[in-house]
Here is the input.
Amino acid sequence: MPPKNARAARPAYRCADCGHEVAKWVGRCPSCQAWGTVDEMAAARPVLTKVAAGAPATPARPIAEVDLDSARAVSTGIAELDRVLGGGIVPGAVVLLAGEPGVGKSTLLLEVAHRWAAGASPGPSLYVTGEESAGQVRLRAERTNSVHSELFLGAESNLSAVLGHVDAVKPGLLIVDSVQTVQSPEADGSPGGVTQVRAVTTALVALAKERGLPVVLVGHVTKDGAVAGPRVLEHLVDVVLHFEGDRHSALRMLRGVKNRFGPADEVGCFEQRDDGIAEVPDPSGLFINRQETQVDGTAVTVMVEGKRPLLVEVQSLVMKTQMAMPRRSVSGLDSARVSMMLAVLGKHGQVHTGDCDVFAATVGGTKVHEPAADLAIALAIASSRKGKALPANLIAVGEVGLAGEIRRVSGVGRRLAEAARLGFDRALVPPDAGPLPKGVRATVVSNLGEALTIVRCK
Here is the structure.
């Protein structure tokens, strides 16, 4: 008979995509809405409602007596990666790096392993791949000049073999590419499944905490851009990074999504080259197009990614159309905010685009979603509609409301300081912008009509 303090085990069903559990079988997962992914899982052991106390592994100590030296961040040798991590990688930390196929995750981590092995970091680096053979990784290392005697390579897809490599090499950094290809012999399911990913990640997290070994895991993403596997995967690790980039652009951006040891909104910039991935410490020049003769339909703004201000050029093309339904095409911008700017321009700026095709895009393949770019988007559209070019040295920063008012945004002084460094000496800013840097003639505009009048596009 089962214990009196245990609940009776009932058959359960689990989604293979997201891990959601239901009491009975359904054709469509209630959580992720995927069809045909719900399968019956093995009956779980009875859950005890009362657990006896046991001896702790280490006694609890006052927080002031906890040693900090063992938790100091160690530089990876790549400044842009250290920026996103918050100064470096912490011993015992588990980092999950996710990104689309072909964006350069393996190339970046191979460079990290090489910099770690060549630097003064404690211990060699161990790169374990479950997706490629050792020869394939060696070819890439030759192409990117990442061969080093302290960089060890293992091609394994079994968790037990990975742990064996760790015992043999005793590395200071472990990279596993990828967590979806490693299989634990003690868990059910195929590699990449919910059960396997959870079991492998849990084992590697325990290994990292026990030995103070920093571990970097490569994660796959779904077609929606989310990390593949159970949602608990992102909760188990300490840091979640997303490596983003357009296949048609050499720019790559490393974005922090979760970070227990530093800021969670920092961004690092890289450039994909034939010989590997290179850091871009000053990426503002990639997002603006300086021309000798200024053309209509362009405006420059400053977005803030984490703590880094980046200048971005917004371009617009407005043309008369004979079609009953004018086209609206947006690239790199939020289509909803562009539509809102068109409505506000027609209502409060007397700039009507109902009979025109409107195209709006950013330069350099960057993506801008913050409201601080609203004023630049509106000015670029008005400039193209009126056929009048904006001043070449002008910066526009501000959020535009539905009533046409210009609202304040954060960090205006920091944005204008970056603009002044790159030669922009005029700016349109919202009210209550705070202290502004010297070298920039800032004009406060309270509504969209004032801004259009100043640039002569009304």
About this structure: The chain has three domains: 7-48, 71-281, 286-454. The domain at 71-281 is CATH 3.40.50.300 (Rossmann fold).
